[in-house]
Amino acid sequence: MPQLHRTPAPVAEPTAPTGRPAYQKFDVVARKSGIDGFGAFAAEAIPPHRKIGEIRGESISVSEARRRAAGKARIMIVEVSEKKAIDASQSSDPMRFTNHSCAPNARLQIRDGRVEFYAVQPIAVGEEITVNYGETHHEGTLACRCGAPGCIGWL
Ligand SMILES: [Zn+2]
After folding, report:
1. For residue 11, what pLDDT is reported?
2. 22 CA → ligand 1 middle, Å
3. Shortest CA distance to 88 belongs to which of 99, 98, 75?
4. Rounded CA separation 62/60 (Å)
5. pLDDT in tens, 8-26
6. Residue 146 to residue 35: CA distance in whole angstroms
7. How far is the CA of 2 from the centre of ligand 1 (A)?
8. What residue ranges of the chain have pLDDT lower than 50?
9. pLDDT of the residue at 135
10. Residues of 97-122 as b/e, b for ≥16 C-beta within 10 angstroms?
11. How far is the CA of 60 from the centre of ligand 1 (A)?
12. What per-residue confidence (pLDDT) applies to 152?
């Protein structure tokens, strides 16, 4: 008597929703920004105080970072200590496109050599994610175009 074989029901694979790395907690995409160049935009709603993601990249010395940054208007280097910096130029992390705003909706946190981003208010789908860069290598010589009412005007 022939045996009946039933095709097993497909089992949902436990895959990450978008294949992003585990340290990128929310979906963020790089798009042209009204502020400057490309920006990082939320592709899903982000609640306040949640970690959004990180920038990872090449670990270099601060002196090498300053050499690489010299004369450039746009850089993707973050100093993570007095000696070390992360150059994310070759990284695929979308957070590396995060622009400065004088009225940001996120904040940058340097912890244990890591460059982390946290939401400070609810961020809607399609909203550009911004942080206050604080002190930058531009040392107040680059015009800020963030458009925030309290814009200090310079980076
Ligand atoms: Zn500004």
Report:
1. 54
2. 31
3. 75
4. 7
5. 555 554 445 557 999 999 9
6. 5
7. 76
8. 13-15
9. 60
10. bbbbbbebbbbbeeeeeebbbbbeee
11. 29
12. 79
Distance 26 CA to ligand 1 centre (A): 25
User: If you measure from the C-alpha of residue 40 to the centroid of ligand 1, how many angstroms do you get, rounded to a whole number?
Assistant: 17
The strand pair at 128-131 and 99-100 is best described as parallel
The per-residue pLDDT for 13 is 47
Looking at residue 56, its amino acid is R
Domain extent listing, the chain: 28-53+90-131
- Residue 9's pLDDT is what? 56
User: What spacing in Å lies between the alpha carbon of 19 and ligand 1's midpoint?
Assistant: 34
The CATH number of the structural domain formed by 28-53+90-131 is 2.170.270.10
Longest dimension (CA), the chain: 86
Q: State in Å: Cα 149 to ligand 1 middle.
A: 8
